[in-house]
C-alpha cells in the first residue's frame, strides 16, 4: 500500500466510523447536526491516521484502531469548536467554512463540544474488539492528554501568554500540552493497542515529542507567510494577538532550521525500532513539510 | 449511623477526594483555581451521596465509591459552569456566589468545565480499587448519561424549548435527560460497584427515574415560590425565559401532587429490594421535600 492509498483509504474509514457513531446516538437533532458539521469540516485527519499508521507499523490489524482513531479526532474537533468561540479565539472561519458557533449559535457549539468529548470516551470504552485492560489504558491516556495537565491546560497557558514575550522554554511547554499532547497520545494509543514493548513506547514518545513541536513550528510559520485562502482561515492572527511564536523568537530562518532539526530527530527515533515505519515517516513529512 | 452523620461525614470525604484530585493535577494555576472554585461552591452533593448511599444499602464498603462519587460531582459541576455562561443561561450567581465566568472570565470557565469533565473520566479509569471490568462499566454509564443522549442532549432540548409551550411528555423527556440521567447514573454506578443483581438494578432504575422527576418538579416549584436569598440565585428565571415548567403545566397544586406521587413511587421501588434502604429513603426526602 502506497502512502497516498493509506491516506485515502483510512481517512474514509475514520470518517465513516465517526459518522456511524453520531448516527447511532439518540439525541437532539440540532445537536447532532452541529457535531457532524464540525466532524465533516475536513482537515487532514493527522491524529487518527497516526493511530492507524502506528498499528500498521507493528503489523497489527488497523480495524482494531478505528474507534480509537475516531475518538481522537472527536477530541481534536471538540477542542477546535471551543477554541473558536467568541470568548476564546473568536474565529469566524475554520478550514474555509464558517465556525460551528457562527452556524449553530454559541450555546449549541459549547454543547456540541461537550458532547464530542464525552462521545470519544464512550466510543473507546464500548469497543468490544479491545480487551478491558487495553480500553482502560487508552482512556487513561486520552483523559490525561486531553485534560488539565494536557491539551486544556496548554490552551489556558496559551491564553495567559498572549501579550507577553515568552521564552523558548515557555513556548515549548505550552505547545507540548496544547498540540503535542494529543499528537503523542495518537501515537501511543496505537502502541497500546499493538501491545508494543516498553522500549518501543519510549522511542515512540520521543518521535511524538518531536513531531509535536515540528507541527507547531510549522503552524507558526504558516501564520506568518501563509496565504489566507489556502489556510481557510485568517492568517497573521498570532501577530494581531501579540502571541509569542517560533518565528518571532527565532526569526523565520531560525524557525525553519528548528523545524528541520525536530523533523530529523523524529525520524531518527523511528529508526531505532524494528518496525515498518514507512507510513509514520510519510506522516512526519506531511506534518513538517507543508506548503512553503 | 444516622442520616445526618452520613451526610456530614461523606460530604466531607467526597470534597476531600475532589480536592486531592485537583491538587494532584499538574496544570495551569488559574485553571486549577477555577476548577476548585466551582467544586468548592457547595451544594448538597446529592449525586455523589446517592452513589455512596447505594453502596451502603448493598452492604458494600463506601470507600470503593469515593472516586466515582467525586467524578459524578465533577461532571455535575462542569455542567453548571457551562450552563451559567452568557451564551447559555447567563447567570451571575449560583449558590450565592458569583458564577465561574464572572470570577475567572469566560474562556477559563469554558476550559475549567472541559477539564472537569475530562478529569471525571480520569478519576474513574485510574481507580485501582476497582476491577477493570467495573471501571469499564462505570465509564460506559457515565459517558452515556452525561453525553448527547443524556445530560447534554437534555440541555440542548431545554434551550430549544424556551418560548414554547411543551406537553408534559416533552417536558419529562427533557428533564429525564437534563437532570434525570446523572441522578440515575449516580444510583446505578453504586449498583455497578456493589455488583447488584439485574433485578435490583431494574428496581434502582425505577427509583432513580422517579427521584429524577421529583427533583425537577421541586426545582420548578422553588423557582415560582422560592426566596431568591435562600436559593442563592435569582428566582422567577423560568417565567422570564417563558420556559415550560411543571407548575405552569399542572398548576402549583397539581405540581405538588405530582411531586408526592413520584416520591411515593420512588420509595415503593426501594421497598421491593432486600437492602437497607434507610439512607436512600433519607436522600429521597431531601430531594423531594425542600423548603416549602
TrEMBL record, chains A, B:
Annotated GO CC locations: cytoplasm
Q: Which InterPro entries match?
A: Isoprenoid_synthase_dom_sf, Polyprenyl_synt, Polyprenyl_synt_CS, Prenyl_diphosphate_synthase
Q: Which residues form the signal peptide?
A: none
Q: Which ranges form a coiled coil?
A: none
- Record-listed E.C. numbers: 2.5.1.10
GO annotation terms (biological process): terpenoid biosynthetic process
Question: What are this entry's molecular-function GO terms?
Answer: (2E,6E)-farnesyl diphosphate synthase activity; metal ion binding
Q: Which residues cross the membrane?
A: none
Q: Which cofactor does it need?
A: Mg(2+)
The alphabetized UniProt keywords are:
Isoprene biosynthesis, Magnesium, Metal-binding, Transferase
Concerning Gene3D superfamilies, the annotation shows: Farnesyl Diphosphate Synthase
Which superkingdom heads the taxonomic lineage of this protein's source? Bacteria
According to UniProt, the reaction catalysed is: isopentenyl diphosphate + (2E)-geranyl diphosphate = (2E,6E)-farnesyl diphosphate + diphosphate
Q: Which Pfam families match?
A: polyprenyl_synt (PF00348)
Q: What class of enzyme is it?
A: transferase
Q: Which family does it belong to?
A: Belongs to the FPP/GGPP synthase family.
Mind telling me which PANTHER family this protein's record contains? Answer: FARNESYL DIPHOSPHATE SYNTHASE (PTHR43281:SF1)
Q: What is this protein called?
A: Farnesyl diphosphate synthase
Taxonomic source organism: Listeria rocourtiae
Upper classification of the source organism reads: Bacteria, Bacillati, Bacillota, Bacilli, Bacillales
Amino acid at each position: 500500500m502506497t502512502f497516498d492509498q493509506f491516506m485515502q483509504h483510512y481517512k474514509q474509514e475514520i470518517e465513516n466510523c465517526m459518522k456511524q457513531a453520531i448516527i447511532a446516538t439518540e439525541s437532539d437533532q440540532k445537536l447532532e447536526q452541529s457535531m457532524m458539521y464540525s466532524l465533516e469540516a475536513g482537515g487532514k485527519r493527522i491524529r487518527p491516521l497516526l493511530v492507524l499508521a502506528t498499528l500498521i507499523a507493528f503489523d497489527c490489524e488497523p480495524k482494531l484502531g478505528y474507534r480509537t482513531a475516531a475518538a481522537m479526532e472527536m477530541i481534536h474537533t471538540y477542542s477546535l469548536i471551543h477554541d473558536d468561540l467568541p470568548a476564546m479565539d473568536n474565529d469566524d472561519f475554520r478550514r474555509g467554512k464558517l465556525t460551528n458557533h457562527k452556524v449553530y449559535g454559541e450555546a449549541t457549539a459549547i454543547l456540541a463540544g461537550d458532547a464530542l468529548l464525552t462521545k470519544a470516551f464512550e466510543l473507546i470504552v464500548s469497543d468490544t474488539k479491545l480487551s478491558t485492560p487495553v480500553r482502560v489504558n487508552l482512556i487513561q491516556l486520552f483523559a490525561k492528554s486531553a485534560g488539565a495537565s494536557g491539551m486544556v491546560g496548554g490552551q489556558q497557558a496559551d491564553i495567559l501568554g498572549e501579550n507577553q514575550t515568552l521564552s523558548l522554554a515557555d513556548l515549548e511547554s505550552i505547545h507540548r500540552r496544547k498540540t503535542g499532547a494529543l499528537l503523542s497520545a495518537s501515537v501511543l494509543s496505537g502502541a497500546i493497542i499493538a501491545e508494543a514493548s516498553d522500549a518501543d513506547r519510549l522511542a515512540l514518545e520521543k518521535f511524538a515529542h518531536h513531531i509535536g513541536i515540528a507541527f507547531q513550528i510549522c503552524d507558526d510559520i504558516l501564520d506568518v507567510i501563509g496565504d489566507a485562502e489556502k489556510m481557510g482561515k485568517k492568517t497573521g492572527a498570532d501577530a494581531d494577538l501579540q502571541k509569542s511564536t517560533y518565528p518571532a523568537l527565532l526569526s523565520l530562518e531560525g524557525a525553519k532550521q528548528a523545524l528541520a532539526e525536530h523533523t530529523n530527530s523524529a525520524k531518527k527515533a523511528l529508526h531505532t525500532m524494528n518496525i515498518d515505519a514507512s507510513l509514520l515517516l510519510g506522516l512526519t513529512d506531511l506534518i513538517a513539510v507543508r506548503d512553503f
